[in-house]
Automatic annotation (TrEMBL):
Gene3D superfamilies found in the cross-reference section: translation initiation factor eif-2b, domain 1, Translation initiation factor eif-2b, domain 2
Biological pathway: Amino-acid biosynthesis; L-methionine biosynthesis via salvage pathway; L-methionine from S-methyl-5-thio-alpha-D-ribose 1-phosphate: step 1/6
Name this polypeptide is given: Methylthioribose-1-phosphate isomerase
The enzyme's E.C. designation: 5.3.1.23
GO MF entries: S-methyl-5-thioribose-1-phosphate isomerase activity
Marked site positions, Transition state stabilizer: 146
Keyword Nucleus on entry: no
Gene from which the chain derives: mtnA
């Protein structure tokens, strides 16, 4: 598949990211229940990809239901994951054409997909320039957290899009891919994409990221985002905040790359960003096998908020935003 998420004329098609890298399984989702299920179990994941999924979900609904039902079901879809603002944004984009009929809704959803690839390509190109500017050493050693690659977007990727641009110019020495507990998006998906790009990489336990920086192994941290508040606070995968703290301590630039659709101007600062809490079993079990005593609870927020003062720059397709002067 060229795109992580697409429309085949009848259904939403996507790759099941829970199965990667062991198996490449294509899903055809013909109704909104299957789409919500895929989003909830992270078969489709990553903020920009969720924007595309939200828009296509409304297109699915608009084919079969009247406007009232579409709006009700669209709300259920938009609430499937609360942190990434792109999901609701994509749903709203498609809903904006509802009065014009199902073909118009589908056309809008397809436009969302197309625009996402370009936005990520352009934002990451701009961010690659910034990385060149702020890092002296060559070849570059980068660290990323979670997966902000083509799989997390409709195509190209945001943070890994930066790697893609820099690697094409032969400028990447190594990427440290944080494993990203508990669901291992880094060890499974980022590693898969880096291998696909032929970029040298090593998987880094989340707990080793600070040590990697202390040992001078990282020139720059590059991550994506799920929602960016008006003041520049950044919600991203749990563990990002700890990486930002370590980067600040060691003078390593910390760059966030995201499409404008991830910026939520309606939210003044990170304290108002809804943070998804996930099933404790993701922490107390590993690959379905219990690893903790029976009955153990878990604190399992899916995201954290990195305060704006730890962010060197937020780069979108339109701007390089330095939250603090
Ligand atoms: O829970 P996930 O895997 O959907 O979390 C994804 C992230 O946190 C990504 O870093 C973010 O969505 C940016 S993707 C370009």
């Amino acid at each position: 598949m060229d795109r992580t998420i697409d429309w085949d004329g009848e259904a939403v098609v996507t790759v099941d990211q829970t199965a990667l890298p062991q198996a490449y399984r294509v899903l055809r989702l013909r109704d909104v229940d299957s789409l919500i299920d895929a989003i909830s179990r992270l078969a489709i994941r990553g903020a920009p990809a969720l924007g595309g999924a939200g828009a296509l979900g409304v297109a699915l609904l608009a084919r079969d239901h009247d406007a009232q039902v579409v709006r009700l079901e669209a709300e259920r879809l938009a609430s499937a994951r609360p942190t990434a603002v792109n999901l609701r944004w994509g749903v709203n984009r498609a809903l904006s054409r509802l009065a014009e009929g199902p073909d118009a809704v589908l056309a809008e959803a397809l436009a969302v997909l197309e625009a996402d690839i370009k936005a990520n390509h352009d934002a990451s190109g701009r961010a690659a320039e910034l990385v060149r500017e702020v890092c002296e050493r060559r070849p570059l050693r980068l660290l990323t957290h979670c997966n902000a690659g083509r799989l997390a977007t409709v195509g190209w990727g945001s943070a890994l899009g930066v790697v893609r641009h820099l690697a094409a110019a032969g400028e990447v020495g190594e990427v440290l891919a944080d494993e990203t507990r508990p669901l291992l998006q880094g060890a499974r998906l980022t590693a898969y994409e880096l291998a696909e790009m032929n970029v040298p990489y090593r998987i880094c336990p989340d707990s080793a990221a600070a040590t990697a920086m202390a040992q001078g192994l990282v020139d720059c941290v590059v991550v994506g985002a799920d929602r960016i508040a008006a003041n520049g606070d950044v919600a991203n995968k749990i563990g990002t905040y700890a990486v930002a703290l370590a980067a600040a301590r060691h003078g390593v630039p910390f760059i966030v790359v995201a499409p404008e659709s991830t910026v939520d101007e309606a939210i003044a600062d990170g304290s108002a960003i809804p943070i998804e809490q996930r099933d404790p079993a993701e922490v107390t079990h590993y690959a379905g096998v219990p690893i903790a005593p029976p009955g153990a609870g878990a604190f399992n927020p899916a995201f954290d908020v990195t305060p704006a003062d730890l962010v060197t720059a937020i780069v979108t397709e339109d701007r390089v935003w330095r939250p603090l002067p």
